[in-house]
Amino acid sequence: MELRHQVAVTLAEVAEAAGVGESTVSRVLRSHGSFSDKTRERVMAAVERLGYVPNRIAGTLASAGSRLVAFVIPSLSNIVFPDVLRGASAVLEENRHQAVFAVTDYDPQKEEALVASMLAWRPAAVVLAGCEHTEGTAKMLRASGCRIVELLDLDGEALDIAVGFSNRAAGHASAEFLLTRGYRRIGYVGHDLIRDTRAGKRFKSFCETLGMHDVPLVDREIVAGASSVENGQVGLEQLLARTPALDAVYFSNDDMALGGYFHCLARGIHIPSRLALFGYNGLDIGRVTPQPLSTVRTPRVATGRVAAQLIVENAPSQIVDLGFELIEGATA
Amino acid sequence: MELRHQVAVTLAEVAEAAGVGESTVSRVLRSHGSFSDKTRERVMAAVERLGYVPNRIAGTLASAGSRLVAFVIPSLSNIVFPDVLRGASAVLEENRHQAVFAVTDYDPQKEEALVASMLAWRPAAVVLAGCEHTEGTAKMLRASGCRIVELLDLDGEALDIAVGFSNRAAGHASAEFLLTRGYRRIGYVGHDLIRDTRAGKRFKSFCETLGMHDVPLVDREIVAGASSVENGQVGLEQLLARTPALDAVYFSNDDMALGGYFHCLARGIHIPSRLALFGYNGLDIGRVTPQPLSTVRTPRVATGRVAAQLIVENAPSQIVDLGFELIEGATA
DNA sequence: GGCTCAAATGGCAGCGCTGCCATTATCTCT
DNA sequence: AGAGATAATGGCAGCGCTGCCATTTGAGCC
User: Which residues form the HTH lacI-type domain (chains A, B) (predicted)?
Assistant: First the structure.
């Protein structure tokens, strides 16, 4: 298997082998400009024979305009982002674009560094999560001249294109729902809110809505670390240990809510009569639990799809609100 | 916000502005070769002032040798692949490499097309799932001269580097475990096995092991579609409807097993006394369910990490077996 | 046959950078 | 001070392709 070090076949060699000019080969391969059938066959035969693979690095440099789309995302553990990438990559592949990505771990400084290194590839667009970025990030992006797409958060100022929904509205709707159902002793279990600003916005809006109805948030438990099933379980356990007399708990995420749900199942805490649970995201798994999870379903895959669509068609600057859906479920 | 169409600053402009030669700027920016402190400051000042971002397209073309790593993965819905990407991207980012990816939907033809378009970027390495590829894919990869890394399946011939574990061994271990626990009427619930060849290998080996102990597989239910919690529930429901007298069920994945678990919870089927469940993957969520899921934990993040490490250090061809861990759990 | 027009084709500069080599400035040592 | 070494620097070809322009070819027509 020692086939390393081979010199790649170049367009010039194909031209030579086919007995035509370089530009002709280029035209044939891109189906751009005119050429005869006979020529095309000769070229394709040579391509086949030599095993030629076009060099897009050179092509991009020469034509100034790449088909790369850079995704700078906070995490791959949070299912949200794989879902977004999934929606986007389907559309990008159909349109002969390529996705590059990097993970920030919810760190704005790291985001800035990664955006810089992404811009070095002169992508057609840079896709980011949320609309909070460092001054430096925003400046670089604006100066780059490439398209900027901010996802999953419409509560802020967009740099160019934004696709998603309002987290504030989601938090508000969740609070209204719990209030309508009659819950009055409400708690919250969340993960690191400083880094995950979108979860922070939901929580803030949730509390404000409770406040408007003169229902204070009774207690909250913020676990260190990322959103996860385990943290949800631990968080609820601690919250209940401190404040047993709650009738509903709002979670920062479905992962967390599922952890809470399992905790209740294990402890025999009846849901929703003894305690109601409400999540966020609308994960598939929440629909299959013995009691479907009450939550807000977010359009994650669609967000990726729409973002990619706008990029490939080079759409004008705009804000696309894809909304969300409140799932009543059976846990609240 | 209409800042489109800007002409990017080039190295030549920086050189001009700093009053030095192009090569000097290049050396300073890459900390390669020698230059005085004074020069470095002048260059950096010019870079800062002009907002220069190096063009890695041009750099890569000139220096022949990219720091791109191409991932051609079957899916982003199956958590396995985000996990692998997560492990890999951390290492790649530390080593100034960039990850590009594309999704095949478990389609070998699509894989071939995507590999071709990835090779056009002249990546340092192409990372694939499994070791079954079309003839064309293998030929292109071998001819490309770039590193090839095949993940998560050691039961076959590797093209260059392979990192993962044996699915056959995992299937075998799962069968042995269920037999040791005394189960004798065993069923299987799986998803599309033609596309997911690794699940197919586990199942085959599982059956062979049962056979060696003269315990035939009693029944199986193969659901159409991907591995998911919902399909697991549906699958188990159908399997039990047809063959109620089972004492254990092996699932193609933890997702599926969780679906089965929820089905049992909802129907009041006692686990494991009435029915034992066994999964595959060792998802975090399986540790937090009221009864921890019995399963095989696979080193997904480590697989990505090790693969990336071998790529950045340009390690020789090799097979790295990271093994797996059987989790006894409480469902079998 | 000679003419026109469009289709088909080739030549070559240049995209922005790096690598090599030549040149110049700066030291070090006798 | 001068020779020789070393550090610092600039010039420029060329990576493989595309885009432009010039040229050739062929078809159609009077």
Answer: 9-63
Q: Which of B53, B102, B103 is nearest residue A120 as measured by Cβ atoms?
A: B53
The whole-angstrom distance between B124's CA and the closest CA on chain A is 11
Please state, as a whole number, how many other Cβ atoms lie within 10 Å of the Cβ of residue A16.
Answer: 15
Question: How many angstroms is C1' of D18 away from CA of A26?
Answer: 8
Partner residue opposite B3 with nearest CB, options A103, A142, A255: A142
Contact status, residue B141 vs residue B116, Cβ threshold 8 Å? no
| Three-point CA angle A206, A211, A212, nearest 5° | 100
Per-residue pLDDT of chain A (332 residues), as tens digits, is 333 446 789 999 999 999 999 999 999 999 999 999 999 999 999 999 999 999 999 999 999 888 999 999 999 999 999 999 999 999 999 999 999 999 999 999 999 999 999 999 999 999 999 999 999 999 999 999 899 999 999 999 999 999 999 999 999 999 999 999 999 999 999 998 788 999 999 999 999 999 999 999 999 999 999 999 999 999 999 999 999 999 999 999 999 999 999 999 999 999 999 999 999 999 999 999 999 999 999 999 999 999 999 999 999 999 999 999 999 999 99
Distance (Å) from the alpha carbon of B89 to chain A's nearest alpha carbon: 7
Chain A residues inside the 8 Å CB shell of B79: 79, 82
Q: Which amino acid is at B86?
A: R
A-B C-beta contacts closer than 8 Å: 174
Domains of chain A: 11-54 (1.10.260.40), 66-165+300-323 (3.40.50.2300), 167-297 (3.40.50.2300)
Using a CB-CB cut-off of 8 Å, the residues of chain A touching B262 are: 288-290
Taking 50 as the pLDDT cut, the residues of chain B under it are 1-5
**B8 Cβ contacts chain C strand, under 7 Å:** yes
Kindly determine whether the C-beta of residue B23 is less than 7 Å away from any atom of nucleic acid strand C. yes
Largest CA distance in chain A: 85
Q: Which of residues 64-103 of A touch strand C (CB under 7 A)?
A: 64
Question: Rounded to whole angstroms, how far apart are CA atoms B212 and A328?
Answer: 50
Nucleotide nearest to B36 (CA to C1'): D8
Contact between B307 and B127 (Cβ < 8 Å):
yes
C-alpha dist (Å) from residue A261 to A165, A231, A277, A329, B73: 26, 12, 7, 13, 33
